[in-house]
Amino acid sequence: MTTQEITREILQLKEKNKAVILAHTYQDGHIQDIADIVGDSLMLSKAAKEVDCKTIVFCGVRFMAETAKILSPKKTVLLPAIDALCPMAKMVTAEDIRVYREMNPKKKIVCYVNSTTEVKAECDVCITSANAVEVINRLPEKDILIVPDENLGHYIKQSLPHKNIDLWPGFCITHKRVLEKDILQVKAIHPNAPILVHPECSYSVLKHADYVGSTSQIIHYVDQHDYDKYIIGTEMGVIHSLKKNHPDKAFYLLSTGLICSNMKKTGLKDVYHALKYQQHVIEVDEELRQRAYGSIDKMFSICE
Predict the structure, then answer these.
(1) Which of 129, 145, 181, 205 could be bridged to 201 by S-S, CB 3.0 to 4.6 A?
(2) What's the number of CA atoms in the CB half-sphere (13 Å) around residue 242?
């Protein structure tokens, strides 16, 4: 089938199955274009919880689809590309958290949403890159562990010096590819263009950025400013949304390495097959789900 034909089939199947398609901003442009809601982890978490539908087709990576299932257990959640995983989510385990808690019983343990359901179930509260500073700032505890992203944790630590924050040695393999020399080179080539960077990048990169934020915050920054061009320091998929919203502006990727192979595994045929055959259903054990729900619900109670 052509792209137009498969898109038409997807729209028909979506209506037939009373489905809603959620897509992360790192997804391929074709996927973003057929989605009902496109956003970052925080926006999609809220959407999964609130959207009125029978089936959620989650175009992202597995931890995102699991989060949707945790928040909406009565809905069918489909992950079109079942092998779309997040390497960072595997850099900390539930057993790691249990061992750390035993050794540090007074520490508040905070997990980035980029983590497994098992890890969320062992942690006290969840965060996203969009609300991390707000959530942790509002916690009454000063002694905190953040897992699994060391770079995001370091950014939060710099933002909240009154907190005593321990960092876990995990990282996003995509954002880790951005080097300090990349941002210095881009600054020299485009001295008047603001550089907008995701906090999953290393501090050596963040310290040279004009703005640090989640993908939705980066998009909002562009919406609120009137520069002719911008340098984007996060996964390339966000540029698709930016170009659609601002066709008169120029957007340049900070580094050619900002491509997440896992986010790019989802194609239109995968979405079509997921809807047609109801395949790759995400299941979460109910006892585990309830425990994981607690950490996510705590996040919502703090930042909503």
Answers:
(1) 205
(2) 31
